[in-house]
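Project outcomes to date are best conveyed with an example. Our students and postdoctoral researchers have been running inverse folding experiments weekly, and each run begins with a structure described purely in tokens. The record below, which covers 943 residues, was selected by the lab manager from last quarter's runs and is presented without edits.
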């Protein structure tokens, strides 16, 4: 597609926004909700559509919009005296439909039937003529006079003239001579309309002069004329807005010229510019005029060597927003790549934190090494003075002769008269120097990490800014989804003589563009059913003490990782008794029907072919087609629920995934299980006292904001039927104590125990695709920087699932299915390398490992509640050796049966017997046979 064709298609996309604005004005005009300012905006939209279509060559669209604009002018002029009837409103809306049909035909590049268009236009415009009459010249003058002093005419002049000039400037290189001449003439007419409305006579005269010049200029020179005209128009537009009307030229003298000599502004040789005089001239010029003049020059090609600073106003460069078309598939690929970028950024952040921790640890150990070295030096000096170290009595003194050679002389100095150095002292001195050098390296690493942190912070900021643009690109406001429904409801109200008002909430809620097609049909079906069978006739509503006009509310809100759309009516509700009768007629036993809950009964309306209506009409029935609604929603991983109250109304709730890949989440932990929840789903993380928890039968409650809400322990419901290997997160949690997480809205408020809060992260969201039936609330996952996969949970859905019958039935097997225990082993050894090697061996065999660097730390961990299946301990260790560990541990009754295996380099029988007598279950000597040790552990841990 060439650029010119692309621009025309962009205009057709823009035309829809003009038509949407017109339709919105006419939908509100019946109840006088539309003011004269809205009619001015409608006139502006019709005028812009007419002018743009004419410039782009869409003559049929331009002519139709022109005729439509004339009747809109009459309506604006006589708005206070005209009675707005349903028929008049319908005619205007049908006129918008005709314009929309023309736009669709051009977008689809189809063959347009002018005869059909003319028949449709005649029906609309003849009807409008009967109501409003024809537009007279006097009406045009009265309309201009009506707008004087209102303030809106100057606003229109400011915005529309600037837009028209920018659009035309972009078209100049792509239009042929004849097209350029016609476009220029049409542009002058449009500009004169706005200048006349704003009563800016000099601008009108200038436009007339340019129009006359365009008619007589040769085709070859039209491009130069158009560019010069646009520059003068822009300068005059700025002068008009500043109130400097006397400076606007009223004539336009265009002299065609050609350049025989190419001038390079980058070369200043031979070009003498008196900058002092130039500065004086610049100070006398109007600033806005200067800015507009500078704008017309290709500034990037001009180089000025300054000899004195000249203060001038910066050029004012107008920005125009250009629209482009991007295939949906390409947007999806872009979104996927951005998700990978977020993941890789999180990995970098995680690795940077590890490096910072390593650097801090290295610095701490360097300080300890320096302290140890200082103590060693003091000990050596003291030992030398006190004679604890044998030092030679003769000190070697090195001298240098005149010829450059050196010799060593024996000198019998007293120890206080001259220091005596031994090999140990020299080694110590070298170690001190090495420590100093290592400290310097450590400092350099710290500074490098600081620089890296700054660069990564900039990367995070850039990524956040990119995310906002990705969000705007991938999403569309809910208003775009429902914009056709007010018109549909208005037409149904007139067709079926039933007063129904549609109210839309959450129009700014973002919806993924990819779900629009699948979402439109279910919403359309639900609204038509709400109108047909939800809202009662006016006489029945009045008899039931309801307003005669029914109300349907459609709203959207983003909650957690879901978008919630509700369709609520204040009608008569769904008759549960009729649904039960229908179920009985299908052969379901009465006993089963009576035992069904209300939710189970209502769920049957989504079965294929289910209906409580005997006759099918155009809009009937509330059950027919509901299976299609649920099917369409499942294709976008959505769901629908229904609640009803007979005599009060019905509410359908649609849940669809908020499929934007990047989301801010909070990482939480409970009973060793780490999961994430969307940050915007948290109501509060609340500290609590035991006396604040109350129990009602089997359910705990907590008081929050004067409300009593249920409190659950998710470990009672989320049962793992296989071994779960805990993999704790690195670092320190943001909050390391039990708290209560409060989530939900009004009737869905609930809370859950949380052990640790690890803080928030910005992550990439991945759907979970599995044939396994997952618990409620588990439908997405995230990947952390260290590579681990964490479930992303909808907490409201999860907690509600915990209380539902379905959730209990899924987990009823928890009492009968064997749950494999976690096999945790404690390794106690003072050698870090031995601990690491042994831990690797055990982890490969499926064990979870805890470590202690000596017997004292091992005993403390056991006594503080660490639960292990066995202990593997060295014998020789600082603070408390392996024998001491056996004595203290086996002295406690609760550890009497805890298997403790000794693993040591002492292989003689004496050490072995001592260990076994103190309570060791077995004794292995290093090097040991790995398989024998694993077999022994397997035997001990399976008991």
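After processing, the design step wrote out the following sequence:
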């Amino acid at each position: 597609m060439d650029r010119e064709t692309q621009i025309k298609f962009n205009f057709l996309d823009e035309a829809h926004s003009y038509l949407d604005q017109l339709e919105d004005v006419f939908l509100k005009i019946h109840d006088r909700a539309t003011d004269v300012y809205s009619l001015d905006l409608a006139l502006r939209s019709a005028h812009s559509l007419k002018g743009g279509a004419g410039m782009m060559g869409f003559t049929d669209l331009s002519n139709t919009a022109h005729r439509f604009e004339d009747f809109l002018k009459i309506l604006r002029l006589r708005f206070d005296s005209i009675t707005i009837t349903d028929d008049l409103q319908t005619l205007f809306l049908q006129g918008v439909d005709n314009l929309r049909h023309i736009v669709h035909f051009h977008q689809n590049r189809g063959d347009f039937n002018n005869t059909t268009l003319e028949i449709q236009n005649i029906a609309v415009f003849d009807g409008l003529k009967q109501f409003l009459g024809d537009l007279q010249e006097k009406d045009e003058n009265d309309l201009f006079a009506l707008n004087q002093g209102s303030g809106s005419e100057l606003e229109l002049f400011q915005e529309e003239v600037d837009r028209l000039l920018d659009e035309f400037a972009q078209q100049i290189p792509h239009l042929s001579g004849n097209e350029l001449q016609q476009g220029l003439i049409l542009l002058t007419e449009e500009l004169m309309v706005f200048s006349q409305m704003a009563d800016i006579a000099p601008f009108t005269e200038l436009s007339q002069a340019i129009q006359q010049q365009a008619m007589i200029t040769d085709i070859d020179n039209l491009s130069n004329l158009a560019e010069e005209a646009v520059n003068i128009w822009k300068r005059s537009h700025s002068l008009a807005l500043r109130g400097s009307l006397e400076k606007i030229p009223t004539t336009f003298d265009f002299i065609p010229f050609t350049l025989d000599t190419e001038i390079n502004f980058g070369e200043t040789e031979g070009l003498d510019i008196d900058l002092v005089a130039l500065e004086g001239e610049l100070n006398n010029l109007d600033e806005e005029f200067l800015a507009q003049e500078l704008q017309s020059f290709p500034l990037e090609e001009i180089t000025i060597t300054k000899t004195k600073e000249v203060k001038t106003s910066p050029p004012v460069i107008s920005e125009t927003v250009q629209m482009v078309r991007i295939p949906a598939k390409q947007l999806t690929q872009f979104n996927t790549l951005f998700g990978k970028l977020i993941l890789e950024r999180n990995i970098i952040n995680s690795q940077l934190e590890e490096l910072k921790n390593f650097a801090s640890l290295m610095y701490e150990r360097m300080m300890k090494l320096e302290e140890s070295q200082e103590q060693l030096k003091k000990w050596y000096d003291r030992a030398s003075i006190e004679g604890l170290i044998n030092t030679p009595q003769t000190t070697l003194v090195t001298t240098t002769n005149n010829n450059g050679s050196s010799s060593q002389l024996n000198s019998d100095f007293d120890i206080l008269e001259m220091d005596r150095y031994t090999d140990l002292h020299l080694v110590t001195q070298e170690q001190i120097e090495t420590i100093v050098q290592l400290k310097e390296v450590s400092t350099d690493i710290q500074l490098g990490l600081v620089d890296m942190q700054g660069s990564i912070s900039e990367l995070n900021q850039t990524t956040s800014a990119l995310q906002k643009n990705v969000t705007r690109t991938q999403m569309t406001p809910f208003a775009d989804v429902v914009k056709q429904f007010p018109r549909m409801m208005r037409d149904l109200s007139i067709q079926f003589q039933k007063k129904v008002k549609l109210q839309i909430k959450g129009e700014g809620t973002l919806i993924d563009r990819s779900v629009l097609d699948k979402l439109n049909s279910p919403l359309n079906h639900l609204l038509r059913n709400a109108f047909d069978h939800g809202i009662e006739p006016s006489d029945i509503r009045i008899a039931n003490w309801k307003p005669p006009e029914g109300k349907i509310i459609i709203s959207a809100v983003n909650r957690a990782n879901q978008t919630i759309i509700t369709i609520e009516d204040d009608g008569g509700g769904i008759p549960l008794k009729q649904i039960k009768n229908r179920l009985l007629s299908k052969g379901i036993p009465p006993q089963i029907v009576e035992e069904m809950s209300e939710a189970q009964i209502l769920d049957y309306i989504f079965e294929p072919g289910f209906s409580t209506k005997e006759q099918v009409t155009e809009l009937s029935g509330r059950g027919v087609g509901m299976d299609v609604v649920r099917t369409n929603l499942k294709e976008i991983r959505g769901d629908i629920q229904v609640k009803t109250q007979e005599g009060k109304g019905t509410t359908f709730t649609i849940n669809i995934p908020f499929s934007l890949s990047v989301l801010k989440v909070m990482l939480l932990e409970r009973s060793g299980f780490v999961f994430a929840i969307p940050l915007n789903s948290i109501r509060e993380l609340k500290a609590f006292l035991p006396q604040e928890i109350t129990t009602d039968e089997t359910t705990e409650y907590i008081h929050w904001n004067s409300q009593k809400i249920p409190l659950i322990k998710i470990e009672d419901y989320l049962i793992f039927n296989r071994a779960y290997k805990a993999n704790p997160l690195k670092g320190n949690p943001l909050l390391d104590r039990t708290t209560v997480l409060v989530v939900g809205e009004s009737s869905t408020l609930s809370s859950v125990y949380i052990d640790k809060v690890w803080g928030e992260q910005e992550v990439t969201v991945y759907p979970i695709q599995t044939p396994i039936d997952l618990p409620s609330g588990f439908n997405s996952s995230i990947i952390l920087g260290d590579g681990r996969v964490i479930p992303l949970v909808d907490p409201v859905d999860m907690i509600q699932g915990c209380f539902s019958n379905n959730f209990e039935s899924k987990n009823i097997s928890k009492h009968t299915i064997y749950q494999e225990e976690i096999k945790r082993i404690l390794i106690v050894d003072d050698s870090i390398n031995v601990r690491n090697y042994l831990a690797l061996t055990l982890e490969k065999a499926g064990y979870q490992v805890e470590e202690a660097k000596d017997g004292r730390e091992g005993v403390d961990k056991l006594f503080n509640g660490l639960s292990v299946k066995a202990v593997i301990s060295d014998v020789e260790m600082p603070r408390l050796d392996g024998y001491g560990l056996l004595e203290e541990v086996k002295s406690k009754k609760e550890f009497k049966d805890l298997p403790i295996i000794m693993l040591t380099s002492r292989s003689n029988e004496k050490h072995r017997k001592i260990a076994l007598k103190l309570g060791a279950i077995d004794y292995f000597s290093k090097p040991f046979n790995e398989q024998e040790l694993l077999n022994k552990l397997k035997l001990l841990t399976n008991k």
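Residues 257-321, 393-400, 405-411, 805-820 have pLDDT under 50 and may be disordered. The first helix runs from residue 3 to 27. The training component of this project remains on track.
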